[in-house]
Design goal:
- The protein is mostly helical.
- It has one domain (14-104).
- The protein has helices at 45-50, 54-76, 82-104.
- Helix 2 packs antiparallel against helix 3 (82-104).
- The longest helix has 23 residues, at 54-76.
Length: 105
């Protein structure tokens, strides 16, 4: 019996299913095929991008306010000039967005 809500996979909130922690049995021995069909046996980065769905878009969209808040927190106590603050904000915002983008892939 599940005590938490499960979102449909192809919805904007489908990325929240990653937080459920039901990853038992996902690490398989070498050479053992997974219980689900393999879409492409040797995918490229472009194949992975074409395979993104609405749940992955939700992960990327939710990263925007998180990246904004995290970047503001990083720059808040910076005692440099304005140029240094802007550069630090830009680099921290970009870093957080790239990390969430990699999670979506």
């Amino acid at each position: 019996m599940e005590s938490y809500h499960t979102h449909t996979h192809d919805s904007i909130w489908g990325g929240l299913n990653l937080l459920k922690g039901d990853n038992q049995g996902r690490i398989l021995d070498r050479g053992v095929r997974p219980p689900y069909p393999i879409i492409i046996s040797n995918p490229t980065v472009l194949d992975s991008i074409y395979n993104l769905n609405t749940a992955d878009l939700g992960i990327v969209l939710s990263s925007i306010p998180f990246a904004f808040l995290a970047s503001r927190w990083v720059v808040k106590d910076c005692y440099g000039n304005e140029y240094l603050k802007r550069k630090l904000y830009k680099s921290s915002f970009t870093y957080v967005m790239v990390m969430f983008g990699l999670v979506a892939l």
